[in-house]
Amino acid sequence: MLPCLLMLTDIVIMFTSSWLAVLIRFSMDERQYPFYMAAVMANLPFFILIHLGFFYQFKLYHRAWRYAGNRELLAIVAANLFGVILSYMVINNVFSIPYFAKRTMSKGIFVSCFFFDVFLIGASRMFVRWAENASERNARRGKPLRVLIVGAGDAGNIILRDIRQRDNRNVVGFVDDDNAKWGQIMNGIKVYGGRDSICALVKDLRVDEIIIAIPSMEATAMSDLAEICSSSGAMVQILPAFFTSLDASSVRVKDLRPLEIEDLLNRDPVQMNLKEIGSYLTGKTVLVTGAGGSIGSEICRQVLRMNPSKLILLGRGENSIYEINRELSEKAPQGVLVPYIMNITNREGMEEVFKTWHPQVVFHAAAHKHVPLMEAEPEEAVFNNVTGTLNTAELAGQYGVERFVLISTDKAVNPTSVMGATKRVTEKIGQALNKKYSNTKYMAVRFGNVLGSRGSVVPLFKKQLAKGGPLTVTHEDMKRYFMTIPEASQLVIEAGSMGDGGEVFVLDMGEPVKIMDLAKKMISLSGLVLGQDIEIKVTGLRPGEKLFEELMTAEEGTEKTSHKKIAKAILHDEDPDALYQQIEVLRSLKDENAIIGQLQAMIPTYEPNHF
Length: 611
Hints:
The protein is an alpha/beta fold. 47% of the residues lie in helices and 15% in strands.
C-alpha cells in the first residue's frame, strides 16, 4: 500500500514541479509562457515515466523510510539527477516528430524541476519517517495517562504546560488547598477542590497518576498529603523540595520522581551549603574507612565534591570497594582515588596506609553494626569495633592527622547490645586520644537509622513486599529514628568542620517513627491493602534490641552548635591510661560472659537485653 501511495505522491510532485518551473521562469513573459507551458504538458508523461524508472531502479519504493538517513537522501538525489538528464536527452534530442520538435524545453526548466523534485520528494520521505516513528511511539506509549495535579500554583501550572508540549499525559484536573481557587479554570483545567477530594476525584475522573507539585510544603503537611495520595490507588509522582530554591520556570516533567517512603516520614530535609562547610577537605588527603558501606560510600561521594587531592577508599570487602571506586572514577580526576582492600584490625597494614599516604582527615565508618549477629559473636564485635577503631585512631594521632571523625550510633546510648556497648567504647577512645595527641582533633558523630542502608528495615520491607509478604516487625511499639543516607553523610562532614576535639556530636533525627507505622505506609505506598493483599507479622524482640532508641544518656547534657540539626553532647573526660587498661583487659577475654561483664564495667549504663 505504501509504495503505491509514494508513487502517486511522486507523480503529483513532478507535475507540480514542472508547473512551478515554467511559472517562475516565464510568468512575466505573456508571449512565451503559453508556448513553454504547452511544451511541458505535452512532454510531461515521458518526463514522469523516465523518472519513475530511475526511482524504481534506486529502490525509492522499497526502502524502510522510518530509518532514513544520508544514504536514502543520496538515492533521491541520484535518481532525480539521472532522470532529469535522460529526460532532457529524450525530449530535446531524440524525438523527431514535428509536434514535439516545436515544443522543446529549455535547460533552465529541467534544472528547476530537478531541485523542486529533490526537495519535495525528500520532504515527502521525511514526513513518512516522522509519521512511522510517531505511530511507533504512540503504540509503545499506549493510552495517555490521566493525571491529577496537586498544587495549582506556579509549579503546577508549569508542569501542566510542559506536559502539553512534550509528554504522553492528559491532565484532567487540579487540586489545591486554597479554597479561593476552587472552581477556577487554569490553562483550561478546573481546580476541583482540596486534598480531601483526592480519593473521590481519582475514582470519578478515572485518574491514573497524581503529580504533587508543591515543593515548598512543610514536612508534616507533605507527609499527610503523600499518605492520602498513596492510598488513592493511583500512581504518585512528586516534585522534590530541591525546587523551592529555584525559579519556577526551571521545573520540568523530567524532574518528577516516584513517591518514596521518605516522603511519608514527617521529616523536613536537611538544607546546607556543602561547598562552604566542606572547604576543610579541599586539597587534602582524605581517608574513609568502611568506604564500601552505605554511609562510607556516601561520605566518599560528598568528599569528592570538595576536590580533595587524594581520596583513599579503604574497606575489607573487595566487591564493595570495586563498585564505589568504579562509580567515582567517572567523576574524579586521574590519580585522586586510591582504593585499598584492608581490614582495620590489621595494625601493620593500616600503618602502611598512613605511612604511605599521610592522610590529613579520616572518616572512620568501618564497623560491625548488626545487633543480633554481634550478640552471638561478642568477641568479634570487640575485635572489629574496638580493636579496629583503636588501631585507626592511634595511627591518626601518630601520623599527624588533622581531624579524625568517628561514625557512631544511637545504640551507643544506654546500650542493651554488645554492638551498642562497643560503639560507646569507641566514643571513649576518641575522647581519650584527643588528650594524648594534641595535633589531632578527635570527634564522634552519633545518629540513628539511615533509610536504605544495607541490612536496615526499609530494604528488608521492600524484599518482603516483592515476595508477597508478610512484613515482619519485632514489636508493635518499636520506634526508631530515621534519616536519609545523603543527609547523614552531609551532617557528618559538617560536624567534622566544627569540632575542636573531644566532642560527640548528636544529629537531630526529628521524631522517632513506629516501625509498625512504617510497615503500613510501605504497604500503602506499594498499592496493596493490609489484611487483604499482605499481612504484618510480629516476631518478638531479638537479643540486644531496644523498643526505643535514645540519642542522649540521662547524665549527658547538650550544647547548641552553629547548625540547628547538630548538637554537642556534654561528656565526662576520659582518663587515657585507665581506658587503655580496661581495653587491654577487654581484648584479652574469650568468654562471652566475661566480655559482657567487662563491657558493663566500662559502660555503667550497659544493660544486656537477652530476649
